[in-house]
Write a structure and sequence with these properties.
Helix content: 40-55%
Oligomer: single chain
Strand content: 5-15%
Structural class: alpha+beta
Number of strands: 7
Strand order of the largest sheet: 2-3-1-4
Shape: elongated
Radius of gyration: 26 Å
Largest sheet: 4 strands, antiparallel
């Protein structure tokens, strides 16, 4: 079955540059492939077509103009070039996620281990960083229509990052959890409460004595 395509050819005034950048950013976010300046192509899908029309509708408002073409099919050789270019785009985006995992996420966890910053707040922050990576990955997958090879590497790195997070959270719990071992069995137990930076010392009497009054703000 022949693939169908949508081609957008447009012109936007060169000044202010923000107008051209806005259209370019919207089209790149959709996953469009630029064949040359102001000429891009997308696979013909109903949802994509509607989004493309929405973006194109902004062009006349900016003082520009556009023409949208439905392309029923491409010559086999040309289509293969287009597919290869689309996969290369997605592979480049996948490579950026791998770099984020390797040079930022992993190093962040290693650094927190190095300085032994085993706090609930730090574990939560690292978890949020991993969720950002997952959402980033999901956005790329949504526009990876032709199964770029780089996806597999990202899946592996996200799994590795999850393992690192699990290990870090385990260490946080071991040191701060309700059943954490005390260095001195006769010392009063310490209880750390997630989201609260005050430590309460539980004595064997009927009252508690705060050791710090600093509360989390914001």
């Amino acid at each position: 079955m022949a693939r169908e395509w949508v081609l957008l050819v447009y012109r936007v005034p060169t000044e202010p540059a923000s107008k051209r950048v806005s259209i370019w950013r919207d089209l790149k976010r959709m996953g469009a492939l630029y064949l040359q300046q102001c000429v891009c192509i997308l696979p013909r899908q109903e949802v994509l077509r509607e989004e493309l029309e929405r973006v194109a509708a902004k062009i006349p408002v900016m003082g520009g103009n556009y023409t949208m073409f439905d392309v029923p099919s491409l010559a086999p050789g040309d289509e293969e070039k287009i597919l290869t270019a689309f996969r290369a785009l997605r592979d480049k985006e996948y490579a950026e996620i791998v770099e984020e995992c390797e040079t930022k996420f992993v190093k962040e966890v290693e650094f927190e281990h190095f300085r032994q910053n085993y706090s609930f707040e730090e574990a939560e922050e690292i978890g949020q960083d991993l969720e950002k990576i997952r959402r980033w990955y999901d956005r790329i997958v949504a526009r990876d229509w032709f199964d770029a090879a780089g996806r597999e590497a990202v899946v592996g790195w996200i799994a590795r990052c999850q393992e690192l997070l699990n290990d870090f959270e385990g260490e946080v719990y071991r040191r701060n959890g309700d059943d954490a071992d005390s260095a001195d069995e006769d010392a009063p137990p310490l209880r750390a409460v997630a989201g609260v930076s005050r430590i309460v010392v539980e004595t064997h009497t009927a009252h508690t004595v705060p050791t710090s009054t600093q509360e989390e703000t914001g």
